[in-house]
Structure formats: structure tokens, C-alpha cells
Design a protein that fits this description.
The chain is of the alpha/beta class and about 425 residues long. It is built from ten helices and 16 strands. Keywords: Flavoprotein, Oxidoreductase.
């Protein structure tokens, strides 16, 4: 027999952790799995990278986030905070285990019915011979789990299986760096992530991109003693794509020549020692040059690993590949499969719309929906039970309404 856990959260990022805590508060057994460590996406940020959002907007589960100088939290401070929250609420998490497959245990999990009881018109189907009450919390999904945690486009076969009633996909949307689509981009000195700034000291570094990640990297590497060149395909840096505190500094560095910038330029090929650039002149004619670089950092965004979404056939036809889901319950067209956090945005373009700070309501929506299933099952059996689905339940970490209003009126991310 496979082990059974009532609910599984895939993804130990902030919203995954917050969802697990919310479910635990409602008395729903939950276990979290992640292919990497706690806060995996944040862990690959360069050391001492700071959040763009204020601390109150990225705090979770009602636990305040304080920094020693009241500044926005750094990578290290936030990872430390997440570990503390996990320990405080005893969140069961298994790290470095990748969920590579999600399969229905029987046909009851394949599609939803039109029963309006669960909200939004997406409900669990019921196998022949079963009542809804008998099947409500029964195992519906079988998860295949691999001990090989490295993210690839082709996941390995599972090493073992786990049965569950409900799955929350809090997998984020930044699993792989975007590709340039040019020869040589797989060479070892080409990296879609900014690493420890110290390693670039005295080296010639080409940064490809012109928005926040690329601009912040250019500033930090210049400060760290690197010789930085910025390559961007437009006429100038975008007016609306750079944080206000970064723009004056990068523009000053470019004007002074401290950071060289190639605008209207694209990389056409990368070799072991040089990069071929094509720049469009004012008259529209292309000009080609070859420049030597020690490191090439294409900081042009990231894409989501949609393998689980594709398996479940819940991918929308949007360019982002965002999953299909009911905004009231966060349930997908597959009964018992939910999405949470930035995973709902799919692969977002440079104009991000979904951030941690506007996803804090997802855990409560999912918990409310699962509690309605549990209450329905108990009611049909004539049991006396406590209503765990009460949205004003005192022990549930709901956050404060004032913060939600400020986030809506003035997003920071």
C-alpha cells in the first residue's frame, strides 16, 4: 500500500508554506514537498539581494518580518525568516524530492461535475456506487516522487509513490532561465543567474537585458570591481521597467562610461572567448562586432516548468501557459487539484502581474473549499462537527485588511 496523506502541497516557497499552515489550522493533514530547499527560488538569488517589496507585504502566516535596520529584507534574512516560520508551526516538509507525476487513482478524479456545492462549478466526480460523502476525502491522486531533485525539461521516472486526496501546486513560475536561442549559450561561462558578486571581480562581464534583474546586476557587479557591459535590444532602458531607486544610478554609470551600454543590440553568437553582437544604427543598418568577455549573463527572465500542468491537462491557451483555475476556490478543472501563489501566472513576461504580495488570499480560499468538502461528508453521515470553514476563525492566519488594501492600491513588486 502506498502511504496516504490527506493533502500535499508541492512547493516550499512562501505561499506553499502559508497554505500548509492554513490547512493545519483547519485540522487538515498536510505535507509539503519541494525539489530543492525551503524557499528554493529565493535561495538562488545572489547573496545579499534585497526584496523589492516591503517586509509587511512578504510576511506570511501572521508572523511579522523584522530586519535589524528596518530595511527591506535581504535574501539571507528572508530565508532565515522562512525557516523560523516552518519551525514555529511545525510544518512537515520533505526537501530535495521532486514530484514528477500526478495521476488519478480512478476515474472519479478525471473531471469535475456541475455540483455547485463546492463553489465555482468545479467539483470532484464520484465513482459508480459511491456517494459524495463516502468519496469526499478518499485518495484521488497518486504522486510519483523522484529523489533526483535537479530541474530539467524531462523529469526522471519516480522512485516511489504517495496517495493523496488533494494537491496544491504552489510551484512558482521561475524554474528555468529564458533562452537566447543563439549558438554557444550552453557554454560554461554563460549563466542565467547572478552568482556571488565576488567571483566577477576584475572580469569582463556582459549582461544581456534591460530591466530590473539586469540593471541591478550591472550596478552590483560594477561596485564589486567587474568591468560591466550592458546589452539591450531597445533604443534605451524602459521607462516603466526599472525601480525608481535603480534608474538614476544606472543612467549615471552609463553616462560616465563606468558601465558600457550597447543599445539596439542583440547577441548572435557566443564563443569561448568572445560574443558576436549585431547593433542597428540610426539609419537602420546592422553593424556587427565581436567583443571579448569572461562571463555572459543573459538576465532576460525565467520560465515555468509546466510538466505537471501538462500531465493534468489544465494549461490555458494564454501565451503565458497559465493554468486553468476557479478564482473563488483556486481549484482547477481537475477535482482536488489546486494552484496557489505565482504559479497561477504561468511564465510571466517582463511586466509581472502576479507577486507574492497579491497571493496571500489563496491559502484561505483553498482551505475553505476543502473544509466545505469535509463538512459535507460529515453532514451526510449525520455527524456533529465543528465548522472549520468559518472565514473568521480566530486561529487562522488571515493577515490584516488594511495591508491588503494598500497592496491593491500601491503595488511595490
Amino acid at each position: 500500500m502506498n502511504e496516504f496523506v490527506e493533502t500535499v502541497v508541492i512547493g516550499a516557497g512562501p505561499i506553499g508554506i502559508e497554505t500548509a499552515i492554513e490547512l493545519q489550522h483547519r485540522g487538515i493533514e498536510t505535507h509539503v514537498y519541494d525539489a530543492g530547499p525551503v524557499g528554493h527560488t529565493i535561495s538562488w538569488w545572489a547573496p545579499q539581494t534585497r526584496w523589492f517589496s516591503s517586509n509587511d507585504r512578504i510576511a506570511i502566516a501572521g508572523v511579522p518580518l523584522h530586519t535589524v535596520d528596518q530595511a527591506k529584507a535581504s535574501r539571507e534574512e528572508y530565508l532565515n525568516y522562512l525557516r523560523g516560520v516552518v519551525d514555529q508551526f511545525h510544518v512537515p516538509i520533505t526537501t530535495f524530492r521532486r514530484v514528477v507525476s500526478i495521476r488519478p487513482i480512478d476515474d472519479s478524479a478525471n473531471t469535475g461535475s456541475n455540483d455547485s456545492d463546492t463553489g465555482g462549478g468545479l467539483t470532484n466526480g464520484v465513482a459508480d456506487g459511491q456517494t459524495k460523502a463516502e468519496s469526499a476525502l478518499a485518495p484521488r491522486w497518486r504522486l510519483g516522487i523522484s529523489r533526483r531533485a535537479a530541474a530539467t525539461d524531462h523529469d526522471p521516472p519516480p522512485d516511489y509513490f504517495l496517495d493523496t486526496h488533494a494537491v496544491i501546486l504552489a510551484i512558482g513560475g521561475t524554474d528555468f532561465p529564458n533562452r537566447l536561442g543563439v549558438p554557444g549559450e550552453d557554454l560554461p561561462h554563460v549563466d542565467g543567474y547572478l552568482r556571488e558578486v565576488h567571483r566577477y571581480h576584475g572580469r569582463n562581464v556582459l549582461i544581456i537585458g534591460g530591466r530590473n534583474s539586469a540593471v541591478e546586476a550591472a550596478i552590483r557587479l560594477h561596485r564589486g570591481g567587474a568591468n560591466v557591459t550592458l546589452c539591450y535590444h531597445r533604443d534605451q532602458l524602459p521607462d516603466d521597467g526599472i525601480k525608481y531607486w535603480l534608474r538614476p544610478e544606472i543612467e549615471g554609470l552609463i553616462r560616465s562610461g563606468s558601465v558600457q551600454a550597447f543599445f539596439r543590440s542583440r547577441v548572435t553568437e557566443i564563443t569561448e572567448h568572445a560574443v558576436s553582437l549585431e547593433t542597428t544604427d540610426d539609419d537602420g543598418k546592422p553593424h556587427r562586432r565581436s567583443v571579448e568577455f569572461d562571463d555572459v549573463l543573459p538576465l532576460i527572465g525565467y520560465r515555468q516548468n509546466t510538466s505537471l500542468f501538462r500531465q493534468l491537462d489544465i494549461v490555458s491557451d494564454l501565451p503565458s501557459g497559465a493554468p486553468l483555475y476557479d478564482a473563488e476556490t483556486m481549484q482547477t478543472p481537475r477535482a482536488g487539484i489546486y494552484v496557489a501563489g505565482t504559479a497561477i501566472g504561468g511564465t510571466q513576461s517582463s511586466r509581472y502581474q502576479i507577486f507574492l504580495e497579491n497571493c496571500h488570499d489563496h491559502p484561505a480560499k483553498i482551505a475553505d473549499h476543502l473544509c466545505r468538502e469535509r463538512s459535507s461528508r460529515a453532514d451526510s453521515k449525520g455527524a456533529t462537527h465543528q465548522s472549520h470553514g468559518d472565514p473568521e476563525r480566530a486561529n487562522s492566519p488571515r493577515g490584516d485588511q488594511g495591508l491588503r488594501q494598500r497592496i491593491e492600491l500601491q503595488p511595490e513588486s
